[in-house]
């Protein structure tokens, strides 16, 4: 496609591959209704400073699907992409992204900056592994269901100052959620089979992290707090131990980290505040067949509320620094 690289097609079908290149175009809308191929399907958008929206209804390929783009602004809308060997979305320009379903038996990699007041909304994701990387934009990502082998969500470069939504996550491999300085995340449930999970909150912002139903993992669960705002999990169940690292916690309140229940059928339950100054924990019940440990070497303020605590191999509160505040443990 040329300088004005507009393109429209009803049906594109190939027994080999399909490649569409708009790399020389400054702008131009792309519209496709039904795309099918035995080989790879590739859409390469323009590098110009104009706009070139993309609307594709259905993509089916027995190989890979890729959408790449340069600097041009593009709002991208897909209905369903089904690619047997992998899906890649890697775009440098801003613009919203919307898809009803992204499905692959291999890896799905999504990387895109989302500008101010823009969104990335993917209703259903199913893949052998999923990696979502948010660029240095300031808006919102959401997904309703994510079914994957391993799952990674990385918004550390994001300037977003509110909450992403990852409703239901089911994974059979390691899960990692790493947030930016000011953004949070809302998850209904996270279930991990045969592996562990780590959730890291940004160190400077006040956005919240919530797991409304909870986190369950066959492996270890690690939660790293930072900044202010609340970090709330309804239930935590693990067969590999639970660790909360609150070293970067800001001044907050007793509800900064809260959970209804923490149950570990194997592995220790540990709250580690390291060189941090603030420790705020509110948990209704902690049960572990191993040990419970809380360490706060440099704390100067803390409120610890644990209604029920049972640890077969012992309970330890050590090196609480010069913390003022309260501890209520039953």
How is this structure best described in words?
The protein is mainly β. About 0% of the residues lie in helices and about 60% in strands. It has strands at about 5-15, 20, 30-35, 40-45, 55-60, 65-70, 75-85, 85-90, 95-105, 105-110, 120-135, 140-155, 165-170, 175-180, 185-190, 195-200, 210-215, 220-225, 230-240, 240-250, 255-265, 270, 280-290, 290-295, 300-310, 315-320, 325-330. It starts with 6 loop residues before the first strand and ends with a strand.
Characteristics:
single chain; 330 residues; mainly beta; 27-stranded parallel β-sheet; 27 strands; 61% strand; elongated
Question: How is the topology of this model organized?
Answer:
Blueprint (H helix, E strand, L loop, with lengths): L6 E8 L3 E4 L8 E8 L3 E4 L9 E8 L3 E5 L6 E8 L3 E5 L5 E7 L3 E6 L6 E16 L5 E15 L8 E9 L3 E4 L5 E9 L4 E4 L8 E9 L3 E7 L3 E8 L3 E8 L7 E8 L4 E4 L5 E11 L3 E4 L5 E11 L3 E4 L5 E6 L1
Parallel strand pairs: 1-3, 2-4, 3-5, 4-6, 5-7, 6-8, 7-9, 8-10, 9-11, 10-11, 11-12, 12-13, 12-14, 13-15, 14-16, 15-17, 16-18, 17-19, 18-20, 19-21, 20-22, 21-23, 22-24, 23-25, 24-26, 25-27
Can you summarize this structure?
With 330 residues, this protein is mainly beta.
């Amino acid at each position: 496609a040329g300088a004005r690289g507009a393109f429209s097609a009803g049906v594109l079908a190939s027994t080999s591959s399909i490649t569409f290149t708009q790399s020389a175009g400054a702008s131009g809308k792309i519209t496709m209704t039904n795309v099918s191929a035995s080989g790879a399907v590739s859409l390469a958008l323009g590098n110009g400073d104009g706009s070139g929206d993309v609307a594709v209804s259905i993509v089916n390929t027995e190989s890979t699907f890729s959408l790449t783009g340069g600097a041009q602004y593009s709002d991208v809308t897909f209905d369903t992409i089904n690619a047997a060997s992998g899906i890649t979305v890697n775009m440098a320009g801003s613009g919203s992204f919307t898809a009803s379903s992204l499905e692959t038996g291999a890896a799905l990699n999504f990387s895109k900056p989302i500008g101010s007041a823009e969104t990335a909304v993917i209703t259903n994701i199913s893949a052998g592994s999923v990696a979502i990387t948010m660029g240095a934009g300031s808006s919102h990502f959401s997904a309703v269901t994510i079914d994957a082998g391993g799952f990674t969500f990385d918004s550390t470069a994001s300037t977003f100052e509110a909450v992403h939504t990852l409703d239901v996550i089911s994974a059979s491999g390691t899960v990692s959620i790493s947030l930016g300085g000011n953004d949070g995340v809302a998850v209904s449930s996270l279930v991990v089979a045969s592996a562990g999970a780590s959730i890291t909150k940004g160190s400077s912002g006040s956005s919240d992290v919530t797991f409304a139903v909870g986190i369950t993992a066959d492996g270890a669960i690690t939660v790293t707090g930072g900044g202010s705002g609340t970090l709330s999990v309804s239930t935590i169940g693990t067969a590999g131990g639970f660790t909360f690292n609150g070293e970067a916690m800001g001044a907050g309140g007793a509800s900064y980290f809260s959970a209804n229940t923490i149950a570990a059928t194997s592995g220790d339950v540990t709250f580690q505040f390291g060189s941090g100054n603030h420790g705020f924990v509110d948990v209704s019940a902690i049960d572990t067949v191993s040990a419970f440990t809380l360490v706060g070497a440099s704390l100067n303020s803390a409120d610890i509320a644990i209604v029920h605590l049972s640890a077969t191999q012992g309970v330890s509160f050590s090196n609480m620094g010069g913390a003022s505040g309260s501890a209520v443990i039953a």
